[in-house]
Structures are given as structure tokens and as C-alpha cells.
Write a structure and sequence with these properties.
This protein is mostly beta strands. The protein is built from one helix and ten strands, in the order βββββαβββββ. Bound molecules: deoxyuridine-5'-triphosphate (DUT) and magnesium ion. Belongs to the dUTPase family.
């Protein structure tokens, strides 16, 4: 585990007052929970997506880092509240408001209240790739097998 100081702008004044700043919940938690910086409760109908502000902006600045926004497992599994973009990717040079695309993939409406922790932010290391065009690859044991070619058992 590496540690990094991350610049954050508080865009919603309820942070530090009504809402604690995002913090790691346990000693080895990987994610910082993000809150729904809503003005009023939002009823997300089954199948609907809403772009919800987190009330924060971050600037990773370090090009060896990115951040991802991931669903919270309890909300995703139990209530179908996941992300409209699958996973949110935050570039190191992004300085705008951190937005959470929230998708109700479930069969019932779900109400999100202001301040609810609806997703989590994970800071990750990045490897930048240079694409080198070749005609053949040195053959691996897998070769081009994929999509379940190793079977189930
Ligand atoms: O869930 C997300 C995903 C992205 N972003 C911000 C940070 C990211 O750096 C920027 C652009 O995201 P991405 O590259 O995934 O979107 P795009 O559709 O390719 O937009 P762009 O053309 O601005 O790169 O939007 C969020 O706030 N939340
Ligand atoms: Mg992009």
C-alpha cells in the first residue's frame, strides 16, 4: 500500500458540517465512499440513470495515478444500484466535479437521500502503454483462447 496526499476541493458546503469528508472505513479499506450531494431525495425508478454530483473535485495531478468510481457491493447486490458507465475512470488531469453516474438496474424504484454514500473511489497506479505494431506474437500457452475456453470445472 502506498500513501498519497490528494488535493480535494469541497464544492458542497455540507461537507465538514453535516457530512464527514470521505474517509477509509477500516484500516485496510481500498475505497473512499462518495456521497450523493443532492438537494432533495431522488427517486431512481427501475432502469433509470442519474448523474449525481459528489460535491467534491479532486486533482490527482500525478500521471502515474488514476482513480476509479466503483459501486458499493451492498447497494449493487441488494438494491441494483450500480453505475451507468460500468466503472467511472478519473484521469489524473481532471479537475472538474466528481460525478457519479447512478443506475438502478433493479426492478424496483430506489430512493437516494442527500448525503447517502452511493459509490466508492479507489486510487490506482497507472502504466502508460506505447503501442508497438507487430505481425506475430511470441506464442503463449493460452494463445488466442478466451471467453471460457478453459471450461467451468
Ligand atoms: O464516473 C465518472 C467518469 C468520469 N468522470 C470525469 C473524470 C474523467 O477524467 C472525465 C472524463 O471521463 P472519460 O474519459 O471516462 O469520459 P469521456 O466520455 O471519454 O469524456 P472526455 O471526452 O472528456 O474524456 O470525466 C467523472 O466525474 N465520473
Ligand atoms: Mg475520455
Amino acid at each position: 500500500m502506498t500513501h498519497k496526499v490528494l488535493e480535494v476541493k469541497v464544492l458542497d458546503p455540507r461537507f465538514g458540517d453535516e457530512w464527514p469528508m470521505p474517509a477509509y472505513a477500516t484500516e485496510h479499506s481500498a475505497g473512499l465512499d462518495l456521497r450523493a450531494a443532492l438537494e432533495a431525495p431522488l427517486v431512481l425508478e427501475a432502469g433509470d440513470t442519474a448523474l449525481i454530483p459528489s460535491g467534491l473535485a479532486i486533482h490527482l495531478a500525478d500521471p502515474t495515478l488514476c482513480a476509479v468510481i466503483l459501486p458499493r457491493s451492498g447497494l449493487g447486490h441488494r438494491h441494483g444500484i450500480v453505475l451507468g458507465n460500468g466503472t467511472g475512470l478519473i484521469d489524473a488531469d481532471y479537475q472538474g466535479p466528481l460525478m457519479i453516474s447512478t443506475w438502478n438496474r433493479g426492478r424496483e424504484a430506489f430512493t437516494i437521500s442527500p448525503g447517502d454514500r452511493i459509490a466508492q473511489l479507489v486510487v490506482l497506479p497507472i502504466v502508460r502503454a506505447t503501442l508497438q505494431v507487430v505481425d506475430t506474437f511470441e506464442e503463449s500457452a493460452r494463445g488466442s483462447g478466451g471467453f471460457g475456453h478453459t471450461g467451468v470445472r
